[in-house]
Design brief:
Layout: H1 6-30, E1 40-43, E2 46-47, H2 53-70, E3 72-77, E4 80-85, E5 92-93, H3 95-105, H4 110-114, E6 121-124, E7 128-129, H5 132-143, E8 154-158, E9 161-165, E10 170-173, H6 175-182, E11 192-194, E12 202-205, E13 217-225, H7 231-241, E14 244-246, E15 251-253, H8 254-257, H9 266-284, E16 289-293, E17 320-323, E18 329-336, E19 339-346, E20 354-363, E21 367-371, E22 380-384, E23 389-398, E24 401-410, E25 415-419
Parallel strand pairs: 1-6, 3-11, 21-25
Antiparallel strand pairs: 1-2, 3-4, 5-7, 8-9, 10-12, 13-19, 14-18, 15-17, 16-17, 18-19, 20-23, 22-25, 23-24
């Protein structure tokens, strides 16, 4: 063991005592609470330097409660200024969390204060809460004029040409991004200025493509007349089915394209039958179209040659065809004067032809005779000529080759005759 000279022993003892004293002093100082905000401290624009924490808490509450009740969030959009009172979307500063942040920024005991730079400025952004649903609803009112819906690509037939219009992108507002940016201006008194030309929250939304590749070939066409007084109803229905795409192997199901319940009255039902007829005629001209569900009328109709009508009637009334052609088909529909035009177009060449009708097995109409006492003796008149019954055989001709598709049988319509005398019946004496 090394023995130190006496003078060095005293120096060591004094050093140890000094160190212990310093440690005990610092420990004592750290137990002394600092009950005042040291330095130049701002909560937003409110200076709370020199206040006790209790005073600061009260000051923050009073200051921001007044702002919440009396002041507004200001949004400048171009030359327009919009003011939304904080109370309208339940915005409030959280005083308790603000003081918690404050205590992390400034010394709150003697030890921390020894090493704190009291000349440093501290600005605390107070945490706040608000009703995002109410704020979003207000923002939608003022920002929705900046939005522009995207336009999907479209096709129309002009004469013999298929005209293609590419999709047009739209502009949509990212309201979540708006609110995130807007939070930086809440309770600051500064206006939120929006430059509609540069705003990052205005997002381009691409227009929709109807198919993975453009349609370029007109395959078939059909026309059906309609009552000009129903133009609005016709356009509404045709716009619904216009642009429908059917892949090879897919059904062309009219009930999936139109809501039949909207065609409830006799006039509307007749219109539905005319639309069904137009789609049917345009489709069956195409090689590879298979008939799944098609109902003809029991008697010839005024808007189509016998055999070429397709009516929607009965419990399972519908028109269903299958696209077994060698490519996709798109249905286009428009009007010209009092005619509905139906087209099928494709991305590839698909053969189509013309439809012909052959009548056979004609049955003369039966005669119904009734007595009309107002007629002179021996006088008679025809009230209705009636129509004969027959069978219509529908064929399709493509490249000079004829293919029989189907046949429809039509019942005769009776001839009605009025006479002045009771008709003589078989068996009368």
């Amino acid at each position: 063991m090394i023995k130190l000279p006496k003078k060095y022993t005293w120096l060591l003892v004094m050093a140890v005592q000094s160190f212990v004293g310093i440690v005990l002093g610092l420990a004592l100082v750290s137990t002394i609470a600092v009950n005042a905000v040291t330095g130049n401290v701002l909560v937003g624009k409110l200076n709370i330097g020199g206040m006790t924490f209790d005073e600061a808490s009260k000051a923050v509450t009073e200051y921001y409660d007044r702002i919440a009740l009396e002041e507004a969030l200001v949004i400048e959009l171009g030359e327009n200024t919009f003011r939304l009172n904080y109370s309208e979307f339940d915005a409030r500063v959280d005083t308790e969390k603000t003081i918690e942040i404050l205590k992390k920024e400034v010394p709150w005991n003697g030890f921390d204060k020894l090493f704190y730079n009291s000349k440093k400025d501290i600005v605390i952004k107070p945490p706040f809460s608000y009703n995002s649903g109410k704020l979003s609803a207000y923002l939608e009112k003022i920002l929705s004029p900046l939005e522009k819906l995207p336009a999907k690509e479209s096709y129309k037939v002009d004469g013999d040409a298929l005209v293609y219009t590419p999709p047009v992108p739209g502009i949509m507002v990212d309201y979540e991004a708006v609110i995130n940016e807007l939070e930086n201006y809440m309770f600051t008194g500064e206006p939120f200025r929006i430059d509609a030309e540069k705003a990052a929250f205005l997002v381009e939304e691409p227009g929709e493509s109807l198919y993975k590749e453009p349609f370029s070939k007109i395959i078939s066409k059909a026309q059906v007349e309609f009552d000009i007084n129903l133009t609005e109803k016709v356009l509404d229905a045709l716009n619904t089915i216009n642009g429908s795409v059917f892949e090879a192997g897919q059904d062309i199901n009219l009930s999936n394209l139109l809501d039949f319940s909207k065609f409830s009255g006799d006039i509307e039902r007749d219109l539905l039958n005319r639309i069904s007829t137009g789609v049917f005629q345009a489709a069956v001209k195409i090689e590879g179209i298979k008939i799944i569900n098609h109902r003809p009328s029991t008697h010839p109709v005024s808007y189509a040659d016998a055999g070429l009508e397709a009516v929607i009637a009965g419990n399972d009334g519908n028109l269903v065809l299958k696209n077994e052609a060698n490519g996709p088909l798109m249905l286009l529909a428009d009007i010209s004067e009092n005619k509905m035009n139906f087209y099928f177009v494709s991305t590839v060449d698909i053969k189509s032809g013309i439809l012909i009708i052959q009548k056979k097995d004609e049955v003369p109409p039966p005669v119904i005779t009734s007595v009309n006492n107002k007629l002179g003796k021996g006088e008679s008149r025809v009230v209705s000529e009636g129509t004969p019954g027959f069978t219509a055989i529908v064929s399709r001709i493509i490249d000079d080759e004829r293919q029989e598709l189907f046949s429809n049988k039509y019942e005769p319509v009776s001839k009605v005759v009025e006479t002045s005398e009771r008709p003589v019946l078989a068996g009368d004496k």
